[in-house]
């Protein structure tokens, strides 16, 4: 990570010629603009930059649907300010001569736009700090690799894609080494972009892999997550390959994004673990209870797309039971570690998750559990798929309705934020429900 002074030196020396200003939209994508480095120093660094506020009210295809309070045709689609977080200046080694700075989105009145994903997470981090806590987290993001370019995949209607591995390569070194040229380039580029890279491993689906990064403070993890996601796509594209983070790209295993989370005191003290007794603290139990209480109501923040819900299937290692267990991968919440490594793993999100939304929801619910001293339900032992525990929503419509009626969500995020994301779900469902799919054509063209 670079300081402003070091960035200035690199621009003066001709080592950096482009500055990317980036923010994360509702879909978890990095959006923004590319500035010439000299112009950035002369005008943008002190004068700032702006962009249209419709960028927080579009669908995946960049359409501008009606119904958002934040912005509309009637309001003229005005600007919002890209407020640079100068702690996020990073080199982008796979884009020579380029640095990226991540931004918050600010309205004309100088206040953060509350439905901006980064603003939502920062609000919950401030809430945790006010309670005396610091949140640490790591995201384990899976993806599928194809030896088909993005352009060829598009032109073929995403049929006959060629996976980088033809069989299950979970922990298989031969399978990982077959894809190692791409994985190595991603790992090294992300190390050069300021991330602490741990390892790579194969997964179950054809061509499915995971690259792991060391945990960090909540905002740093979310920032790194979206940079890594964008960069891996760019690197794959440069090699004539493609990667997808879809939760369920085919009929095999889906791609997950397991989220590990713990709290510490503001001075780094243990709060989840009692070293004298070697057991969890009551505060940890309250936190887990809060996450579980809000899981169904907050599922839209963990599973933000129509496709997300295809991943939830019995025996798939994607959880369906709102339950917790000790090192039990059939539960939506899995407890692992001890001492400073004691943490909870939320197994609900898929690879398509927006990390800011998921982390904000998880932290908000956990803090709610601490504030209200919620009692932790009994641990689930054995196969949670066969338990009588409540289950997560099976469709986006069910998740949308749960969020819309959630008093907890409206309490921790505010009415405007909840209504904004409920409308986001309405837009997605309407787009899907009016589209004629290839499944319908195959089933009905001749036989119906």
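-> sequence recovered:
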């Amino acid at each position: 990570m670079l300081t402003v002074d070091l960035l200035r030196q690199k621009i003066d020396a001709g080592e950096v010629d482009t500055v990317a200003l980036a923010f994360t939209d509702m879909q978890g994508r990095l959006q923004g603009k590319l500035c010439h480095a000299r112009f950035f120093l002369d005008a943008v660094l002190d004068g700032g930059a702006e962009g249209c506020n419709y960028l927080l009210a579009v669908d995946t295809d960049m359409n501008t649907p009606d119904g958002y309070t934040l912005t509309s045709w009637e309001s003229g689609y005005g600007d919002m300010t890209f407020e640079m977080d100068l702690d996020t200046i990073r080199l982008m080694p796979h884009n020579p001569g380029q640095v990226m700075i991540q931004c918050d989105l600010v309205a004309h009145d100088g206040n953060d736009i509350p439905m901006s994903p980064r603003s939502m997470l920062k609000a919950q981090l401030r809430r945790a700090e006010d309670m005396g806590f610091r949140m640490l987290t790591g995201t384990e993001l899976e993806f599928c690799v194809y030896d088909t370019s993005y352009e060829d995949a598009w032109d073929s209607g995403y049929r006959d894609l060629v996976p980088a591995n033809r069989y299950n390569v979970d922990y298989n070194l031969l399978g990982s080494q077959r894809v190692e040229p791409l994985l190595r380039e991603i790992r090294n580029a992300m190390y050069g972009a300021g991330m602490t890279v741990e390892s790579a491993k194969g997964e179950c689906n054809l061509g499915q892999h995971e690259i792991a990064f060391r945990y960090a403070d909540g905002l740093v993890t979310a920032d790194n997550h979206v940079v890594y996601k964008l960069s891996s796509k760019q690197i794959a594209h440069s090699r004539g390959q493609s990667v997808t983070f879809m939760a369920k790209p085919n009929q095999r295993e889906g791609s997950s994004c397991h989220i590990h989370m713990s709290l510490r005191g503001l001075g780094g003290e243990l709060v989840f673990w009692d070293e004298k007794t070697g057991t969890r603290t009551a505060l940890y139990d309250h936190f887990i209870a809060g996450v579980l209480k809000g899981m169904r109501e907050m599922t839209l923040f963990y599973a933000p797309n129509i496709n997300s819900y295809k991943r939830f299937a019995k025996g798939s290692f994607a959880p369906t039971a709102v339950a917790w267990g000790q090192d039990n991968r059939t539960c939506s919440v899995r407890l692992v570690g001890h001492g400073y490594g004691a943490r909870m793993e939320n197994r609900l999100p898929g690879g398509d998750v927006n990390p800011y939304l998921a982390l904000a929801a998880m932290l908000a619910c956990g803090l709610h559990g601490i504030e209200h001293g919620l009692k932790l339900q009994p641990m689930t032992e054995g196969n949670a798929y066969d338990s009588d525990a409540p289950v997560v929503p099976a469709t986006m419509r069910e998740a949308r309705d749960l969020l819309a009626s959630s008093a907890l969500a409206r309490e921790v995020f505010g009415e405007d934020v909840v209504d904004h994301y409920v409308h986001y779900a309405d837009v997605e469902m309407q787009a899907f429900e009016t589209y004629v799919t290839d499944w319908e054509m195959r089933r009905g063209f001749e036989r119906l």
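The CA atoms of residues 283 and 370 lie 6 Å apart.
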